[in-house]
Design a protein that fits this description.
Length: 268
């Protein structure tokens, strides 16, 4: 819907909506934690969510939703009904980027506990830095989206993550590891909105089909990557298991660069 409504400005819309979504996830955790100490308990947070949805309906029930363009074959000017090969390159980029994000989210606290030496509570609290960084990164990305193409911002986000993740992964000094996680989070926060905008931009007339395929990539990454890292951690150590993240990140960056520059000719 955002793509249909905003057209060429879809990158800004994706970035800003994901910034709000990230901020909402932080508010949700605060709500659950805060309401746990009230008479209603933590479950009352669900009631707050229901009230919020009802409020949204009351305020925006008259807002029109675009049905979006439908691909039609016109005489002498056929419109492609299949997603182009370049789309699938960015589909793979999103798959790899999401795998990186899921690995950090699922096992970050465990890594801080067993790899860095934090206590369980401290390790869990340290992970909040990652989610705050995601929101900050998406906000910065939404500002950059007004001046630069989404593929450029995606490359920059991958480069920032390549700087931050090794600090998080290889440094045993707690504060520096947390700082590395923060830097990585700024980059990771832009993986989804920028990969989404870039991929949909390869076939804007097939935005619904493209979005559905991209959602599948995210789900597939969430289903497989954390399990693979956990399996490795059972057989090695959590620090050694995290070694799978760097190749995923580097391959995503390489594919983005290849697709952006068109180095594979007609393939992308």
């Amino acid at each position: 819907l955002l793509s249909d409504h905003h057209g060429e400005q879809r990158t800004i819309a994706f970035a800003e909506s994901n910034t709000v979504a990230g901020f909402g996830s932080i508010l949700a955790t605060i709500a659950v934690g805060s309401l746990a100490y009230t008479i209603g308990g933590w479950r009352s947070a669900v009631g707050v969510a229901i009230i919020a949805v009802v409020g949204l309906f009351a305020c925006f029930r008259q807002a029109p939703f675009s049905q979006g363009p439908r691909p039609v074959k016109a005489a002498g000017n056929p419109v492609a009904l299949h997603l182009p090969r370049r789309f699938w390159v960015f589909w793979l980029v999103l798959l790899l980027g999401s795998a990186v994000e899921w690995c950090i989210v699922f096992w970050g606290a465990t890594f801080f506990e067993h790899g860095v030496g934090f206590g369980k509570a401290t390790a869990a609290a340290a992970m909040s830095v990652f989610f705050v960084a995601i929101v900050i990164g998406r906000f910065i990305g939404s500002r950059f989206a007004r001046r630069f193409p989404s593929s450029t911002i995606l490359l920059l986000a991958q480069a920032i993550t390549l700087i931050g993740f090794p600090l998080f992964w290889l440094v045993a000094f707690g504060p520096l590891a947390v700082f590395g996680l923060f830097i990585a989070g700024i980059g990771v926060g832009n993986f989804y909105p920028m990969a989404l905008a870039t991929a949909v931009g390869t076939a804007p007339h097939l935005a619904e089909q493209a979005s559905a395929r991209l959602t599948l990539a995210m789900g597939l990454a969430g289903l497989t990557a954390p399990v693979a890292l956990g399996w490795l951690a059972d057989h090695l150590t959590i620090r050694q298991a995290y070694s799978i993240v760097l190749p995923l990140l580097m391959l995503a960056g390489l594919l983005t660069l290849v697709a952006k520059r068109g180095w594979l000719g007609k393939f992308v």
